[in-house]
Amino acid sequence: MDDFKKVAVELYEMVLEEHAYLGIASIANSNDMLEHFMDASLKVNEFLVKHDGDFKKALLEVKVNEMLNKEM
Question: Cα-Cα-Cα-Cα dihedral of 32, 8, 56, 19, to 10°?
């Protein structure tokens, strides 16, 4: 689960950075805001594909823990 936490933090940092950029771009009426939004969307999708195994492993761990807790 520690590996997943590292992946989640990495994703969170990337999303915060892109969110900040888009906020500043919208305030400044930047012309490249849509293009940057599309790039950010691609970055997130690539990240999710790259770490798909980590997400599935963490999901499996959570489900197993829930099942074990129900049995007790």
Answer: -20
Q: Alpha-carbon distance 39 to 29, whole Å?
A: 18
Q: For residue 38, count other CB atoms closer than 10 A to its CB.
A: 10
Contacts of 46 (CB under 8 A, 6+ apart): none
**What is the token pair recorded at 41?**
């969307």
Predicted pLDDT of residue 72: 67
28 phi and psi angles, rounded to 5 deg: -85, 0
What does the pLDDT look like over 11-51, one tens digit per residue?
989 888 888 888 888 888 878 888 888 888 898 889 989 99
